[in-house]
Design goal:
The protein has 445 residues and is α+β, with helices and mostly antiparallel strands. It has helices spanning 14-23, 25-36, 56-63, 80-83, 93-103, 111-128, 138-155, 161-175, 180-187, 200-225, 232-238, 249-280, 282-293, 301-305, 308-320, 353-357, 373-376, 397-414; strands spanning 39-42, 50-53, 70-71, 135-137, 330-332, 336-338, 341-343, 348-351, 417-419, 427-430, 433-436, 441-444. The termini are far apart. The structure holds protoporphyrin IX containing FE. Protoporphyrin IX containing FE is lined by residues 88-89, 100, 107, 258-259, 262-263, 266-267, 270, 318, 323-324, 327-328, 386-389, 392-396, 399-400.
């Protein structure tokens, strides 16, 4: 029987559902999936009701549908203050697919090799600044490495004062959302008041403006010197639309900001979770060291990236706490049927990465970190989806995985670290992501 009613969900007021979702997203998801099953509806103030889905068949039906069936950009408004109106995240339809085609090549195929050296060098440089016995915050250290790598991919090999200025500004802007409370800035419009330097929103806008000024200076310099290369900025500056028009500066700036934010914060969080699990479970660390040893001295980066146990550790890290608990929402442009349930046009569907990754039927003992599951069995793209799927699949997935593997290999092979604290680290909201609550504190032995 076909039904058009929204799936069941909690009945308490919208504002309370939103606060729960901001304050404790994972417990909220666990509790509602236990109560309502694979499909449930949450009403989050100022948004349309969200239908959360975690059955692989439902996810397959969404990811394999005609891309015209859904929009995502218009549901991503929450990211607008960070990345601007012209960001890929906020685009839909033809403009979204053509912009994606333009940005993707530097993040795939042969081009990946050229990033290996910068990844390993950045990891060595950051680790060389550690002092024995002095606490290290893994997330902050990883952020330094991943920011260096994304700056390289977006701007090419250029280095200099401008990049040194961008780095702390971006870090400071993202650190403003390092707890559930401060993340509320993104969710509540009334908190988004620019009251100058001392208001959080005012400070965020100032930092963003400063970054945009630096990016604009880079664009101007390239234009006046007719500089060009294989990096993303060069590709975007030379691209022309069907009417022969280049991208405007406003479009270029928003796209650059999108890549800088999406391209480093996520990977840094994934890496800090990996450091946590590897040092929490000594047998995992030992197996990794043995596997790395088997490659001999100075292994090729591509040989490292193919190591099965290292790959399984990265997959399990992204399974147990996927950095984003949901893919972007898919809003139906016309009625759409999922597992016999008919949804009307303009329904917000949220494929839930976290809940799919915690299904007992796919991942027995889902709360346990067990990399072996990825060696014993292969999962479909609808059972395992840390990078989302379909026409919105993360464009940086190959770079992110390469970074995870090379940074882990470089640091584990050369340094002996330990967790500074034996207590389990909690997963908590950081902006739109799920990150380790204290950034994972470690010490160099
Ligand atoms: C471990 C690291 C990362 C994770 C877990 C991650 C995860 C995701 C997810 C779940 C999505 C939404 C996909 C969907 O809705 O189906 C996404 C989109 C996106 N990601 Fe990533 N990502 C990571 C790293 C990166 C990197 C390194 C880049 C740099 C290029 C990047 C750039 C993007 C962009 C531009 C989009 C928007 C794609 C679109 O709208 O078409 N991400 N990512």
């Amino acid at each position: 029987m076909v039904t058009t009613k929204l799936p069941d969900g909690p009945k308490h007021p919208r504002w309370l559902q939103l606060i729960q979702w901001i304050a404790d997203p994972l417990n909220c998801l666990n509790a509602y999936s236990r109560r309502y099953g694979d499909m449930f509806t949450l009403k989050l103030t100022s948004f349309e009701p969200f239908v959360f889905l975690s059955h692989p068949q439902a996810i397959q039906e969404i990811f394999t549908a005609d891309p015209k069936q859904f929009d995502s950009g218009r549901t991503n408004g929450i990211a607008r203050p960070l990345v601007g109106d012209h960001s890929l995240l906020l685009l839909d339809g033809n403009i979204h697919s053509s912009r994606r085609r333009l940005i993707m090549p530097p993040f795939h195929g042969e081009r990946m090799h050229s990033y290996s050296q910068i990844i390993c060098e950045s990891a060595k440089l950051v680790a060389s600044q550690w002092t024995v016995g002095k606490p290290i915050e893994a997330r902050a250290a990883m952020q330094e490495i991943t920011l260096e790598v994304i700056l390289h991919a977006v701007f090419g090999l250029r280095q200099g004062e401008r990049y040194q200025q961008i780095k702390p500004l971006l870090g400071a802007m993202l650190n403003m959302m390092d707890s559930p409370l401060s993340s509320s800035l993104l969710f509540f419009k009334f908190l988004q008041q620019d009251l100058g330097d001392w208001s959080p929103w005012g400070k965020m806008r100032q930092r963003k403006q400063h970054i945009y000024d630096l990016l604009q200076a880079e664009i101007n310099e390239r234009r006046s010197n007719e500089l060009s290369g294989n990096d993303v900025l060069s590709l975007m500056m030379s691209a022309r639309d069907e009417n022969g028009q280049p991208m405007t500066d406003a479009e270029l700036l928003d796209e650059l900001m999108t890549l800088l934010i999406a391209g480093h914060e996520t990977t840094a969080t994934a890496l800090s979770w990996a450091f946590y699990w590897i040092h929490k479970l000594p047998q995992v660390r030992q197996k990794l060291l043995d596997e790395l040893d088997s490659l001999g001295d100075n292994p090729e980066p591509m040989a490292i990236s193919r190591l099965p146990y290292l790959s399984a550790v990265c997959s399990e890290t992204l399974r147990i706490y996927p950095v984003l608990p949901l893919t972007f929402a898919r809003v139906t442009n016309s009625p759409f049927k999922i597992m016999g349930h008919e949804f009307e046009a303009n329904t917000m569907l949220a494929p839930c990465i976290y809940l799919t990754h915690h299904r007992e039927d796919l991942y027995p003992e889902p709360e346990k970190f067990k990399p072996e599951r990825f060696i014993e069995r292969q999962f479909t793209p609808y059972e395992y989806l840390p990078f989302g799927g379909g026409n919105r699949r993360c464009i940086g997935f190959a770079l992110a995985l390469l970074e995870m593997k090379l940074v882990l290999a470089t640091i584990l092979s050369n340094y002996q670290l330990a967790l500074a604290d034996t207590k389990p680290v909690k997963a908590q909201r950081r902006g739109l992501t799920i990150a380790p609550a204290n950034g994972v504190r470690m010490v160099l032995l």
